[in-house]
Amino acid sequence: MDLRQLKYFLTIAEEGQITSAAKKLNMAQPPLSQQLKLLEEELGVKLVERGSRHVKLTDAGKILMNRARQILELSNSVVREIDDFSKGLKGTLSIGTVSSSGETLLSGRISEFRREHSGIKFEIYEGNTFTLIDLLNKGIIEVGIARTPFNALNFECKYTKAEPMIAAIPKECHWDSTDSTISVSELKNKPLIIYRRFEHLIYETCMEHGFEPEIFCKNDDARTTILWANAGLGIAIVPKSAFELAANRNLIYKEIESEKLKTQIAAIWVKDRYISPIALKFIESFGSP
């Protein structure tokens, strides 16, 4: 059994068809079928049940599929690690960022990192947290700069300092209070514009204060939330740093008095997966200032 055979078998298992697996591997079907047969003979077990059009993994095949993934990933990791070592800390770091992480990312962190590692270039992918998680799982990016809350079960995380959520209020609302903060209860019966990811958190917090929030608009971007509030359509509930980055000339803001309505920026990467020395150095530089 060699790495080539494991690659062939894993492709068959993932495609569920020898024909499509052969096409993906750029080889003819008969040699691929022969390699599968040789692998079964060597291991002394049947790995797949062959149907008229599809193949189905046996229990032994399922075990080998999981192990094959691990072995091939380890093999690829060794190659990349040796390559990184030979090149030193040079190359391109692919990271993903949410729109509201700009200030956190650029407030000295990138500039300082660039000064220390001048041979590194960046490739940036932007999207919401769910998009970044998908890019991480696909291996398109090594590190994601995401905002809590998110499901961190399959990820390693390094967090920045927690920041408050704020209410961004159109100036024409003539808010009575001159305080710099606002209680959760003062949001009752107000048209709220929210980033969809915070819906459950905001709803739960308002219900704990005895009222159901009036959600006027839900969207998928903090910048859109601010834009709608800036047009006078309602009160935006966003992280403080997102407000500071946006065009908000028609708005004032007040921090919401709630320990629950806080959020953090985090650097996240996939657990138990190879991560390059470049990415490791970047992660080391990330965190609470």
Report on the architecture of this protein.
Keywords: DNA-binding, Transcription, Transcription regulation. This is LysR family transcriptional regulator. With 289 residues, this protein is of the alpha/beta class. It folds into 3 domains: 83 residues, Arc Repressor Mutant, subunit A (Orthogonal Bundle), CATH 1.10.10; 94 residues, 3-Layer(aba) Sandwich (D-Maltodextrin-Binding Protein, domain 2); 98 residues, D-Maltodextrin-Binding Protein, domain 2 (3-Layer(aba) Sandwich), CATH 3.40.190.10. It contains 11 helices and 14 strands. Strands 7, 8, 9, 10, 11, 12 and 13 form a 7-stranded mixed β-sheet that branches. Helix 1 crosses helix 2 and helix 1 crosses helix 4. The longest helix has 29 residues. The chain is elongated, with a radius of gyration of 25 Å.
Model regions low in confidence, pLDDT < 50 over at least 5 residues:
none
Total domain modules: 3
- Tell me about the biggest sheet? 7 strands, mixed
Number of strands: 14
Short key terms for the protein model shown above:
289 residues; alpha/beta; Arc Repressor Mutant, subunit A; D-Maltodextrin-Binding Protein, domain 2; 3 domains; 7-stranded mixed β-sheet; 5-stranded mixed β-sheet; 11 helices; 42% helix; 25% strand; LysR_HTH_N; WH_DNA-bd_sf; DNA binding; WH-like_DNA-bd_sf
In a nutshell, what does this entry contain?
By secondary structure, this protein is α/β, with parallel strands linked by helices. Helix content is 42%, strand content 25%. The protein has three domains: 3-85, Winged helix-like DNA-binding domain superfamily/Winged helix DNA-binding domain (Arc Repressor Mutant, subunit A, Orthogonal Bundle); 88-161 and 265-284, 3-Layer(aba) Sandwich (D-Maltodextrin-Binding Protein, domain 2); 164-261, Periplasmic binding protein-like II (D-Maltodextrin-Binding Protein, domain 2, 3-Layer(aba) Sandwich).
